[in-house]
From TrEMBL:
Residues 161-391 form the Radical SAM core domain. It is found in: Cytoplasm. Its EC number is 2.8.4.3. Belongs to the methylthiotransferase family. MiaB subfamily. InterPro entries: Elp3/MiaA/NifB-like_rSAM, Methylthiotransferase, Methylthiotransferase_CS, Methylthiotransferase_N, Methylthiotransferase_N_sf, MiaB_methiolase, rSAM, rSAM_horseshoe. The gene is miaB. [4Fe-4S] cluster 2 binds at C175, C179, C182. It comes from Sandarakinorhabdus fusca. One of its GO terms (molecular function) is metal ion binding. Its cofactor is [4Fe-4S] cluster. The lineage of its organism: Bacteria, Pseudomonadati, Pseudomonadota, Alphaproteobacteria, Sphingomonadales. SMART domains: Elp3. CDD domains: Radical_SAM. This is tRNA-2-methylthio-N(6)-dimethylallyladenosine synthase.
């Protein structure tokens, strides 16, 4: 039996829960789906077990991510003590890529909605509710929308309800780069930038609601505005948002090395509110593999971009993504990857075993690397990344800076905040609360975090930059 949605009641009030998998784009989309459901009269709950509608906002980037959807559906479809089960919504990139297959593999799913169509979620729920329960099984999805409309969904979303000190703001979606391993151009479509004025307005709303940090997000965030021509670019947007008085920190992610323009690099030198941190995926340290990946950059051009960034902002912390075991990757190619990790000195980085994604060019390339080799390379790469992160954290001991408090720590009186370099900093402090920016000195460096102590006043970031 389906929760409270029934054919008798086409506009029920239900408790909803949105579970997010994958990237920050999905975190943003999950929040916006929540906004839509709340605007439709539904009420948010913290756990799927207590919800009448469960939205699973999925990720398709690697195989494992898709499997999580099916295991969650398996749990959710089991009848509860009162015989009911929640309405199950499969949203996000798995829904986009595998809509029909989800229907076949998991008939319990009631609504299937892609990442470009979720503004239609309330209508799809109503459509699902209008189908009598005995029709279940006769068709594989109650309601489905995986269209990729030309008009952006953002025009159809209600006002944001975000509360909290740190907020995401999606500025562009989609990708035209077609790296040969990646499904994103197929699931999220081509690059589409949101209008500049809409973004300024949304940022103002967030700041008025208490946000002191905004992270501008997009699959290719630094391509923002480039497809339109004209002045609406990412550095222009950052400069505009830096004028908002209540806003203290600006970040952006994820960037492609190809779109690191001179103006964006200069923004790191010129805009103190732009945090000294950049996530710039390289994927491999071997130019030969980068070519096979269709990355449009080489090892050398990537390193040259980083040199320019460091000239602009000497204390900038760098992060990256790596794939090991791309088809044809030899031990020599992998050694180039290990070498780039030590050469760059990443503050942190993410690494993945290559995963064959159906429909992508690399999936059918010759010389697929055996699983055991991938695993062994991943372990060596992760050890190198962890050592580098630890070295970065140790090198920051003694820095006076500010942290933005985000969550409670494990011990009483402890809070965890973020440094400008995106390190998690553990601090024991009284009289401060989550959402505050407090002055600290970094006292210890761990592999994945730093410890800090409160101090009276932090030097301003520009002064710190001059000292770096
Ligand atoms: N296999 C493994 N990792 C992948 N990524 C993207 N596609 C794949 C794949 N097929 C990684 C890339 C990307 C990150 C978000 O996920 O490193 O930057
Ligand atoms: Fe995928 Fe490459 Fe586009 Fe990033 S740039 S989303 S890895 S195709």
């Amino acid at each position: 039996m389906v929760g409270r949605l029934s054919s008798e009641s086409s506009q029920p009030v239900s408790r909803y829960h949105v579970k997010s998998f994958g990237c920050q784009m999905n975190v943003y989309d999950s929040e916006r789906m929540g906004d839509l459901l709340a605007a439709d009269g539904h009420v948010a709950v913290d756990s799927a077990d207590a919800a009448d509608i469960v939205v699973l906002n999925t990720c398709h980037i690697r195989e494992k991510a898709a499997e999580k959807l099916y295991s969650d559906i398996g749990r959710l479809k089991k009848p509860r003590a009162d015989g009911s089960r929640p309405v199950i919504v499969a949203a996000g990139c798995v829904a986009q890529a595998e809509g029909a297959e989800i229907g076949r593999r998991a008939p319990a799913v009631d609504v299937i909605v892609g990442p470009l169509a979720y503004h239609n979620l309330p209508a799809l729920l109503r459509e699902a509710a209008a189908i009598p329960a005995d029709a279940r099984g006769a068709r594989w999805g109650r309601a489905i929308d995986t269209d990729m409309p030309a008009s952006p969904k953002f025009d159809h979303l209600p006002a944001r309800r975000h509360q909290g000190a740190s907020a995401f703001l999606t500025v562009q979606e989609g990708c035209d780069k077609f790296c040969t391993f990646c499904v994103v151009p197929y699931t999220r479509g081509g690059e589409v930038s949101r209008p500049f004025a809409d973004l300024v307005r949304e940022a103002e709303t967030l700041v008025a609601a208490g946000a002191v940090e905004i992270t501008l997000i997009g699959q290719n965030v630094n391509a923002y505005g480039l497809e339109l021509g004209g002045g609406a670019t990412l550095p222009a947007l950052i400069a505009e948002l830096a004028q908002l008085e209540g806003l203290k920190r600006i970040r952006y992610t994820t960037s492609h090395p190809r779109d690191m323009t001179r103006a964006l690099i200069d923004a790191h030198a010129e805009i103190p509110k732009l945090m000294p941190y950049l996530h710039l995926p390289v994927q491999s340290g071997s130019s030969r593999i980068l070519k096979a990946m269709n990355r449009a950059h080489t090892r050398e051009s990537y390193l040259a971009t980083l040199a320019e960034l460091r000239a602009a902002r000497p204390d900038i912390a760098l992060s990256g993504d790596f794939i090991v075991g791309f088809p044809g990757e030899t031990e020599a190619d992998f050694a180039d990857t290990l070498r780039i990790v030590s050469e760059v000195g990443y503050a942190q980085a993410y690494s993945f075993k290559y995963s064959q994604r159906p429909g992508t060019p690399a999936a059918t390339m010759a010389d697929q690397v055996p699983e055991a080799v991938k695993e062994e390379r991943l372990a060596r790469l992760q050890a190198a990344i962890t050592a580098g992160a630890h070295a970065f954290n140790l090198a920051s001991v003694g820095r006076h800076t500010e942290i933005l408090l985000e969550r409670p720590g494990r011990k009483p009186g402890q809070l965890i905040g973020k440094t400008p370099w995106l390190q998690s900093a553990v601090v024991s402090v009284t009289g401060a609360k989550i959402g505050d920016l407090i002055a600290v000195e970094i006292t210890e460096g761990q592999p994945n975090s730093v410890e800090a102590r409160p101090v009276d006043r932090a030097p301003s970031l520009p002064a710190e930059r001059a000292a770096a």
